[in-house]
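User: Please fill in residues for this 561-position structure.
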């Protein structure tokens, strides 16, 4: 038997950082630790006057790194045969786009005394939407100028992404923007810290972050031109030369563990550190993503990841969040899409509208049990899943939720089931859009808390999508994906695909489509599309007059059968 070696995966989420130590031979998790960010509300710095603002303290990231790696190593050390010298590599994933301003030595401005309490000097969390107007301007300029920069990210720029945040900072906090030598994504900052990199110009940057959020693509030579950026802001044009010209996939080495950092963590110096990436993309890798499989990371929102062979042309797909070579698996096109709310919708209903007989700590369980007794179409309800806007394919943060078909007899479990069905219909819209541009999707693999805890949801999705649904074996797929890249750069596996084959797997349960449910959901989906196009597009020319009557007719047929 081969000697055991281990890799570390660091998973920086919205509220906490997790470290896992994984056996590179089989992906077995031997230790884990979590550190909740202490600043703000659940780790997020908010502004009661501006609901679009969401920032984080970079110092929380570093404290969390030290704390959870030490705890994980101590836990692993209690197991027979483990020694830190057996750790061969480290991988990193983070939320994104989460950029932060840094000085000429790569230090976050937020760590300097004069900027410690300045919100603009902090990390701009992915869910910060303060740059929503700037995102519109970027989209308009790209379209009017004929620039190609939106071709690979769905045709619309988002307020969640890199340039809109930087442009907003330049306009509203010029003292911070002028003090910043450069800006760096969180998924690049953590490898820089681990490796002691102070010259950010030579730090290998993540193609995942660059391609999906910063309009980077080899077809036009990397980042947008200075001319284009200058038409948005002279400050952005001036920054362009202090960023980077090339970005790399995560099977490449970002650097080696710095001696000072190694001593603080309790690890040997010199361990290879992989180029970072975003959490959902690493989650796809940890779920065994391959051509033909869509990986759906399901939690408060949903992120959909697919890959297509790198040697095959992939058409530009309107409304997706990026088509980027190497962003998920090296040598393949990574395709990202998603929904702005899934679990958040169910939580909203439970928190604000749940009747007393279902309320309490077991509300989700009680509602799910009652909803499971209903058949598709039996409630007469149909919902739109836009309670937090639409990420794909409409890319519109100003859309809202909708519930059609309610009567004086409508019950809470019926509404709860309709909300689950709505998120499944929204997922099918994404699949249909991607397939219409030549990318095949045969099956869906899920990961995340929602998928693991709710068999009813999984069956509804299988029936609506008319595809088998599987669940990743690991409950920490993002961290596992990071650990896989740690294993690759550490030499434990020759390729990412080889590491996936050894270190990932699926749970035995398979949710298969039920033909009778598929037929009913096919009818409901057509009505969902009517609502989708009527409320979400400007050129809708249909008629909604028959939607309610169609729902009633379907309800009566199901109840009488």
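Assistant: Residues filled in for all 561 positions:
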């Amino acid at each position: 038997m081969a000697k055991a070696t281990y890799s570390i995966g660091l998973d920086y989420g919205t509220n906490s950082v997790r470290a896992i130590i994984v056996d590179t031979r089989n992906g077995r998790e031997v230790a884990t630790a979590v550190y909740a960010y202490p600043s703000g509300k659940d780790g997020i710095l908010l502004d009661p006057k501006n609901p679009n603002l969401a920032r984080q303290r970079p110092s929380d990231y570093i404290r969390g790194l030290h704390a959870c790696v030490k705890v994980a190593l101590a836990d692993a050390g209690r197991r027979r045969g483990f020694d830190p010298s057996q750790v061969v590599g480290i991988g990193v994933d983070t939320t994104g786009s989460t950029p932060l301003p840094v000085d000429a030595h790569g230090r976050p401005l937020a760590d300097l005394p004069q900027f410690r309490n300045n919100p603009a000097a902090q990390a701009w969390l992915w869910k910060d939407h303060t740059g929503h107007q700037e995102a519109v301007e970027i989209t308009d300029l790209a379209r009017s100028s004929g620039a190609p920069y939106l071709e690979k990210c769905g045709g619309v720029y988002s307020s969640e992404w890199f340039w809109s945040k930087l442009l907003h900072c330049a306009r509203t906090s010029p003292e911070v923007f002028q003090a910043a030598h450069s800006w760096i994504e969180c998924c690049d900052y953590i490898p820089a810290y681990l490796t002691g990199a102070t010259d950010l110009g030579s730090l290998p940057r993540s193609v995942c972050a660059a391609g999906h959020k910063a309009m980077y693509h080899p077809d036009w030579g990397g980042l947008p031109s200075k001319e284009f950026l200058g038409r948005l802001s002279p400050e952005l044009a001036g920054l362009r030369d202090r960023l980077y010209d090339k970005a790399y996939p995560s099977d490449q080495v970002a650097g080696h563990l710095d001696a000072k950092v190694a001593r603080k963590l309790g690890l040997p110096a010199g361990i290879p550190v992989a180029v970072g990436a975003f959490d959902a993309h690493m989650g796809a890798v940890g779920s065994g993503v391959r051509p033909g499989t869509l990986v759906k990371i399901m939690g408060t929102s949903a992120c959909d990841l697919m890959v297509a062979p790198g040697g095959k042309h992939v058409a530009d797909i309107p409304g997706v969040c990026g088509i980027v070579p190497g962003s998920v698996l090296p040598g393949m096109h990574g395709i990202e899409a998603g929904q702005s709310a899934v679990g958040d919708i169910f939580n909203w209903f439970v928190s604000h509208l749940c009747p007393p007989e279902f309320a309490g700590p077991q509300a989700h369980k009680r509602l799910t049990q009652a909803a499971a007794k209903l058949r598709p179409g039996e409630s007469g309800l149909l919902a739109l899943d836009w309670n937090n806007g639409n990420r794909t394919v409409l890319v519109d943060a100003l859309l809202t939720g909708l519930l059609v078909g309610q009567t004086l007899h409508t019950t809470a479990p019926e509404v709860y089931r309709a909300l689950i069905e709505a998120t499944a219909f929204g997922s099918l819209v994404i699949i249909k859009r991607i397939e219409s541009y030549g990318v095949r999707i045969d099956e869906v693999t899920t990961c995340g808390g929602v998928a693991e805890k709710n068999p009813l949801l999984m069956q509804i999705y299988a029936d609506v999508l008319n595809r088998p649904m599987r669940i990743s074996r690991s409950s920490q797929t993002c961290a596992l994906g990071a650990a896989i890249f740690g294993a690759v750069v550490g030499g434990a596996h020759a390729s990412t695909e080889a590491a996936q084959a050894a270190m990932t797997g699926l749970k035995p349960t398979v949710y298969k489509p039920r033909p009778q449910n598929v037929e009913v959901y096919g009818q409901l989906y057509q009505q969902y599309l009517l609502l989708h196009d009527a409320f979400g597009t400007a050129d809708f020319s249909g008629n909604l007059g028959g939607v309610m009557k169609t729902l009633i007719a379907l309800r009566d047929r199901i109840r009488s059968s």
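For context: The radius of gyration is 23 Å.
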